[in-house]
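Researcher: Can you fold this with adenosine-5'-diphosphate in place?
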Amino acid sequence: LENRIVQSQKMQAVGQLAGGIAHDFNNLLTAMIGYCDLLLQRHRAGDASFADIMQIKQNGNRAAALVRQLLAFSRQQKLEVSQVDISDVLAELSHLLRRLIGQGIELELHHGRDLGLVRVDAGQLEQVIINLAVNARDAMPNGGRLTIATMIETVKFARRMGHETMAPGDYVVISVTDTGSGMPPDVQARIFEPFFTTKPVGSGTGLGLSTVYGIVRQTGGFIKVDSTIGVGTTFTIYLPRVAPLEEPQAVPVSREKAPTE
Ligand code: ADP
């Protein structure tokens, strides 16, 4: 189970990174191959350098082919967004969560009533909760309590949330609270960075929270952390609530292209 989680965190992160890096590499390689062509024009086929430059160009072309594969892989990770009830997702996860955190930690789930729906990829939302639960467990080596609660919050005025501004509206809120070690401010400031970890080599990837952050932002949501050394940590996630009016019948129907005037 542990390996599967680390593996899936890695896959998510690789997918996200791959798209961006592959794109830049593609541009760099195109330039390198272009310069090879320029050099080749200045040499005759029999020259000693000609064969060497050909080698560089061929390898450049092979690298470009690999990069294209990587781009294809990252595009494959299609989102399957649907309208879900967070309570259903949590109920389905509760078994796995209990196994994940082990014996010494108590698990409390508080479901808010009539939460409404949010528009997410349910698999990604599970990943978010699992990543937060794994971190909570790691922060409580001597046991403690993990509390996951859901509720609705109406935000009346635009609100600062980390680097972002949260628009007014109804949000479904998920809070994940542990009674663990807590974090000092300098750690809190860096936790969402990819590859930032305070865990020993081999046990932390530093990708869990950057993945969480990526998914939450991609879903149009927000995340914040509150933490006190020796008391514990709460991660709070806000996801835009889908208004009841937007349920099935109101989904816009795609229309045939109107004739051009
Ligand atoms: P990893 O768990 O692999 O280190 P993450 O991105 O999930 O990577 O977390 C980054 C760091 O944030 C952790 O190494 C840890 O220092 C800190 N952290 C995350 N969650 C908690 C928590 N619930 N309590 C204390 N520290 C935490």
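Model: Folded with adenosine-5'-diphosphate in place. DSSP finds six helices and nine strands in the chain.
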